[in-house]
Amino acid sequence: GRPPSPQLPQRLEEPISLQDAPGGLFQLRPGDPFPERVTVAWISVLSLAFALVCDPRENLSLAEITLRRLTPRFLASLRLLGSGTDILLRPEVADRLLDRLLPHGRLLFLNECFLQALDREM
């Protein structure tokens, strides 16, 4: 992954570009909490870190792409992309997103039509 870089705080009204958001991959050794070595894909946006923990057999490119596609939806569900200063944690929305996009914790190839349909549902 890329070395961490300081991230300037963004106002919530400004659009968020995930292309330049710091992120990358790192590995965790076997032990607590995972019995085998795992790789973590991560991204940092608005002083929040989002991560996917991947089994050794997972497609890491797909994990990074999925994380970049999930992050704006999580930010929206947390009300971080909307106007105003209310940040509402809504775990039921996050659970619904994870259940839909990562059924049983499995990565799926996501296309734009599927994501647009998901956005309409939310």
From TrEMBL:
InterPro entries: AP-5_subunit_s1. One of its GO terms (cellular component) is late endosome. It comes from Cuculus canorus. One of its GO terms (biological process) is double-strand break repair via homologous recombination. It comes from the Eukaryota. This is AP-5 complex subunit sigma-1. Pfam families: AP-5_subunit_s1 (PF15001).
